[in-house]
Amino acid sequence: METKNRRLTKSIKYLERAKKIIPAGTQTFSKGPTQYVQGIAPIYLQKGKGSHIFDVDGNEYIDYPMALGPITLGYCYPAVDKAIIAQLQDGITFSLMHPLEIDLAELLIDTIPCAEMVRFGKNGSDVTSGAVRLARAYTNRDKIACCGYHGWHDWYVGTTSRNRGVPQVTRELTLTFQYNNIESLHRLFTDNKDQIACVIMEPISVTEPSEDFLAEVKELTHRNGSILIFDEIVTGFRLALGGAQEYYGIIPDLSTAGKGMANGMPISALAGKEEVMRHLGELFFSFTFGGEVLSLAAAIATIKEMDQKQVSRHFWHQGKKLKNGYNALAQEFGLSDRTFCEGLDAHAAIRFRDSDGKDSLEMKSLFQQETIKRGILFNGIHNFCYSHSDDDIQVTLDAYRDAMVILKKAIEENALEEYLEGTAVQPVFRPL
């Protein structure tokens, strides 16, 4: 597969301007320049169509980040764009409530297993933080047990290496436990008896849950009088229309959704049992744009389309081909101990390991460099949309094969840095 001569002139000029006026140069760390090999990767995108995106210099790529997950049907998907345009003619946001709030809430109650009542936010951090505040109010407890990534607000980000600005007293209220390690959660409950308001967790990120882990988490949480919250900002509408809770058959008390529900429009949802959710009316959970109607219309159109077209099946089908194809290539090149694709077919990740078995950003950077040069926008995660075609998958596997050839050479020659043509990818969160 031939590499294409890609110019990045406009991207580089835009970045030079941004660095002078935008801290870190980006609005979202995971979309910023530290996450891609600078000098090779595009920096600014101009437009998208289906599963393809185009940068400001006119270069075309098959897209797998999919805007970090929100694009589930495809860029400029006709049914969703039609719904947005139709609503735009009547207005965007109003001085009083709008009937679409009820329509979408009823649709989500029919879709998400735990949903008996629903409120809306604009991003994932809104609704995970709303869920935590609700759990604290409902239980009259202060501490939180969490597992996974839950957004930028103080209660969670204080547990990470980007915790500057978070008061120590706030950091001490959030405790972390290990995925697939029920004993680590049991210890938190033992050491903080009658103090933990809720357990909030991603039901799955990449590593699959052991056979009884999610059921054990639910039983242990309820036995200790706490609320179970599934953070399904990523998994909602992807693994199944009703999310991971539908796929695994473990129903939480509260659940959040966001990325998958409106094909790119900014909206999120907090849903759960009426017994708990009705207390939200007594708390302050309120947004000027919480009922913004373009996003409500887009969400209704997206969810109906995903239901009618059985879109999650498409994710699983295309994901299986790409995951199995990658692992077959790694086996063929004798690199299966150094790189592999893991996770559920519908949402898998490619891992890179150094000779000591630790994550290797150098390997990831080199592989990313070579796939981008061949027209694949790669960040390690396979986020699929309904528009990813069989041809897209084959072109991607051809690019993966070419990249694997170069990766193998670089490893054999112990020359990963020498093969890199730009700066390596950096982690968003550095070790504490």
Order of helices and strands: HEEEHHEHEHHEHEHEHEEHHHEEHEHH
CATH architecture of the largest domain: 3-Layer(aba) Sandwich
Strand order in the largest sheet? 4-10-9-8-7-5-6
Overall average pLDDT: 96
Query: So, the CATH homologous superfamily of the largest domain?
Result: Type I PLP-dependent aspartate aminotransferase-like (Major domain)
Computed Rg: 22 Å
Total domain modules: 2
- Number of contiguous helices: 15
Q: What structural category characterises the helix and strand content?
A: alpha/beta
Number of separate strands: 13
Unreliable spans: none
What separation lies between the terminal Cα atoms? 41 Å
What is the strand content? 5-15%
For this structure, the CATH topology of the largest domain is Aspartate Aminotransferase, domain 2
Shape: globular
* Portion of residues within helices: 25-40%
Biggest sheet record: 7 strands, mixed
CATH class of the largest domain: Alpha Beta
Structure, explained:
The protein has 432 residues and is α/β, with parallel strands linked by helices. It has 2 domains: 9-75 and 311-419, Aspartate Aminotransferase, domain 1; 93-291, Type I PLP-dependent aspartate aminotransferase-like (Major domain) (Aspartate Aminotransferase, domain 2, 3-Layer(aba) Sandwich). The chain is built from 15 helices and 13 strands. Strands 4-10-9-8-7-5-6 form a 7-stranded mixed β-sheet, sandwiched between helices. Strand 7 (196-201), helix 8 (213-223) and strand 8 form a beta-alpha-beta unit. Helix 3 runs parallel beside helix 11 (293-308) and helix 12 packs parallel to helix 14 (390-412). The longest helix has 23 residues, at 390-412. The mean pLDDT is 96.
